[in-house]
Every structure is written in C-alpha cells, then in structure tokens.
Amino acid sequence: MTTLTGTIIKGIGGFYYVEAADGIYECKARGAFRNEGVTPLVGDRVSITVNDGDTENTVDEIFERKNELRRPPVANIDRIIIVVASMEPRPNPLVIDRLTAIAVRKGIEPVIVLNKADLKDVTELRETYEKTPFPVVTTNGLTGEGTEELKALLEGKTCAFTGNSGVGKSTLLNALDPSLDLATAEISRKLGRGRHTTRECTLMKVCGGYVVDTPGFASLEFARDELVLKDELEDCFPEFEPYIANCKFHPSCAHLNDKGCAVTAAVEEGLIAESRYRSYRAMYEEVKDLEAWQLKSSK
Questions:
Q1: Residue ranges of the chain assigned to CATH 2.40.50.140
Q2: Which architecture does CATH list for 2-64?
Q3: Which overall architecture, per CATH, does domain 74-213 show?
Q4: Which of 131, 139, 205, 259 is the most exposed, having the fewest neighbouring CB atoms within 10 Å of its CB?
C-alpha cells in the first residue's frame, strides 16, 4: 500500500485516472465523498492510495480547488483558450464576452485565439480584444501560424480549450502537438458522427502544460449559477477598471447612460470597444433583477 499525490487527468464511469510521480493509476473515489455530496473533477489535485493485488486504488482526499467549472466538469484551470473562427462559424461577440466574464469571475485568465485567419481578415476582432488585458493570438491550424505564441501561453499552465463546434480546436491542438492525433470536425462529418468531436474531458500533456478540450462549452445555455450578478459584472470587464472611479455616481454607477459616466465616455472615445460595451449592457439586462440568494436557490 502506497500513498501518492497526483492530478486527475480523466474520469469515466466512476473511475478516475490519476497521474502521479511514476505513472497513471485507475482509482475509485471513497464513499465518503458521495456521502458529503462531493464529486472528484478532472484537474483536481488529490491524494490516492495505491493498493497491491486485487484491491482497488482509491482517491482519499481532494485538495482545495482554486476554481471549478460545472459544465464542463473541470477544476483548477489557469487559462481558458477561447478559439474563435474568422468565419464558418461566424464569430459571436456576446458568446465570447460571456465566456471571458465567467472566466474572470472565477479567477481564470481568458486568451482570445482568432483562428482560420486565412479565410477572413480578423483585424477588427483583434483590435477589439487588444483593448482588454487578455492575450490575443491570431492562428491558422493548417499552416501553424501563431502556434509558437500559443505554446508559450500553455507552458506550465492548465488550460481549457473552448469554442463553438467547427472553429478548429482539434486542428489547432494537432498543430501544437501532432502526437495528439485528435479527430477533427471535418473527419467526423465525413464519418457521420455527432456534432462535437471531443466526447469527454481529459487532461492532456501539451507544450509543457495540461490542456483539456471542452466539448460544447461555448454553445451551452448557461446555467443560472454561471451568470454574473450585476454588482460583479463591471469587474468582469477589466478594461472598465481605469475609468470606474471617475464616474460621477461612483460606486453606484451602472454604466448604462452618458450622464457623468466615465465608462461610456471611454466607449465614445474608442478606448473601450463598442462591441464589448454592448455585451456588458446585454448581460446587465439579463441579471439586473436577480439577487445572489435567487442564484443559490436555483442550483
């Protein structure tokens, strides 16, 4: 019997595959987790017992998480790589900005990847997100453009790749590390398979870090517990921060009109991207009448 510390890299059918110092171990979670209503997640740092003979290995302890996402069920993410195609499918700024806001709220750094740059000019999109603190990378999974820049952002980090089906996540990951040999959406369509190429969350070693490809994340209908409350929303648009204190009615300014609002003035001056501000307003309207207790009761 040996006790090891490792990371859950895959969970399927009640079994958890834990990468520890000298290998990967198939484990079952102790019943105590179920009694406490706790489910181990891919990305969890855990303590396991490795048993000899026919006795199952067990996950004994889940260490404190820095963050977690419920859909997809992953934990301890450092960066979310939001892959956006220049076209096919057409970029949806509101979907992108929902993802960045949720990521910021959970302490995850968003990275905007503008893929398929050969099909359509992405200058406007790039300029939009260059007005945020988020890293922005232009890529082409077929030619390898931008992959070196993206590799540097993955090194030493646990990252989740997300984006609508067809944006080229699997092609891009293959360009980053050909040994992954992931099926692409094009191949799946030819074989008549389902909408999403990737079927389950699995941590993969890529470019000196871990990557989890997250099927369907960008296109899901967000659960209420993933919404950002109105009082938190301005903090989830970090490019607003330099201007908020100068709003006439700070700290109660909602940044929804022109009278004395330094944020809307910054939008007018082109310092904050207009599409980002539109997303902020749309998200604010969705949650303006919600309180924290309502979110908790809906979980």
A1: 2-64
A2: Beta Barrel (2.40)
A3: 3-Layer(aba) Sandwich (3.40)
A4: 259
**For 84-116, what is each residue's pLDDT tens digit?**
888 877 888 998 999 899 999 999 999 999 988
Across all residues in the chain, what is the average pLDDT? Answer: 84
What distances in angstroms separate CA 69 from CA 11, 38, 137, 237, 244, one per listed residue? 15, 14, 24, 19, 29
Fold adopted by 229-298: Ribonucleotide Reductase Protein R1; domain 1 (1.10.40)
Query: What are the pLDDT digits (tens) for 137-195?
Result: 999 878 888 999 999 999 999 998 887 778 888 888 888 888 887 665 543 433 333 34
Please tell me the number of Cα atoms within 13 Å of 43 on its side-chain side.
27
**Angle at 244 (CA atoms; ends 238, 248), nearest 5 degrees:** 165
Other CB atoms closer than 10 Å to residue 241's CB: what's the count?
Answer: 12
Alpha carbon distance 293, 257 (integer Å): 28
> What pLDDT was estimated at residue 193?
35
Which 3 state secondary structure label does DSSP give 45? strand
Count other Cβ atoms within 10 Å, centred on residue 115.
25
Residue recorded with tokens 């871990």: 210
In single-letter form, the type of residue at position 185 comes to A
DSSP string, 144-164: TBTHHHHHHHHTT-EEEEE--
* CATH 3.40.50.300 domain position(s) in the chain: 74-213
> Using one digit for the tens of pLDDT, what is the confidence trace for 174-187?
888 888 876 655 43
